[in-house]
Structure formats: C-alpha cells, structure tokens
Amino acid sequence: MRNRNYAKSQLFLMEFIVVILFFALCASICISAFVKADNMSRESKELNHALILAQSAAETIKGVEVGDVDRLSDITGLHKVKENMYRGYYSKNFKIIEDSEGNISDSEDMIYVMEVKLAMENKMLTAEIMVRNKNAQNSVCELEVKKYLPEEV
Q1: Among the four residues 55, 69, 70, 135, which has the most C-beta atoms within 10 Å?
Q2: Where are the alpha helices (DSSP H) in the chain?
Q3: Which residues 6+ apart lie within 8 Å of 94 measured at CB?
Q4: Given a cut of 60, is residue 102 above it in pLDDT?
Q5: CA of 95: how far to CAs of 41, 50, 52, 74, in Å?
Q6: In this predicted model, which residue has the larger pLDDT, 134 or 117?
C-alpha cells in the first residue's frame, strides 16, 4: 500500500514538473513577443520623427528661391558645415540642440544627426537629406529633393 501511494505521488510530481515547464515555455514566448512588439514600436516612432524632420527640410528647400540658397542655414536652423553641406543635431525627442547663440551644444542629449548636401547642376538644385543615429552607420531615413531654379528675370 505504501509503495502504491509513493508511486502516485511520484507520478503527480512528474506531471506537475511538466506542467510548470510548459507554463515557463509559454510565458517566455509571450514575453519575447511583447519585447519584439515594443522594439518595433520604438523603431516606428523613430522613423516617423525622422521622416517629419526630413520632410520639413525638403519642403523648405522646395520653397527656396534663387537668392535664398546661401541663406538656407538661417531658414532651416541647420548649421553650415562646409560649402553646400548643412548639419543639425537633435535630442532623443527630436528637438534641435544648440545654445542661446546658435552654437551646437556637444552634450550627451545629442542622439540624431540630420545632414543636407546640396548640389547645383544645370539650374537644378538637388538636396540629399539624411537623418541618422549619431552612433550608427546606417541612416534612419533618406530623401532626395530636386528643384528647378530658373535664372532671375
């Protein structure tokens, strides 16, 4: 009789262990699904903000007249790095980072970089706009904008 109870309790214990392992497996699958969804949500948010910045710069460039090309840094808030290249630095909330005099603040808040490269060929202004994470080599988004600038009348 005693062996029979011992066998029943041992069988119950093994069944209980299998149920716990199955529950742990299901829980780990659910947790990984939620983590993956959270990462996708963050990447989507980053892409949306980067696209808004790039589209804003693109629309500003589309509105530029012949004489305003040199004033692009004043219009967009980006800083001229070299001839025909502009750059802006942004925080994790995509707010531009600069001090009260308009200088770039080299702070830990700087996460994103927007670069605008301009080229003028045959009265066609071409702008390549790229938004990237400062630590990553690949860009979050890239846009190319072209605008015909006829000669002044």
Answers
A1: 69
A2: 2-62, 72-76
A3: 49, 50, 52, 53, 112
A4: no
A5: 20, 11, 12, 17
A6: 117
User: ∠ at Cα 9 (6, 11), nearest 5°?
Assistant: 105
| Strands laid side by side in the 85-90 sheet | 79-82, 85-90, 112-121, 124-133, 139-148
pTM over 0.85, yes/no: no
Contacts of 20 (CB under 8 A, 6+ apart): none
Residue ranges of domains in the chain: 2-148
Can you tell me the distance from the alpha carbon of 23 to that of 93, in angstroms, rounded to the nearest whole number?
A: 39
d(CA 46, CA 19): 41
Q: What is the pLDDT of residues 24-56, one digit of tens each?
A: 999 999 999 999 999 999 999 999 999 998 998
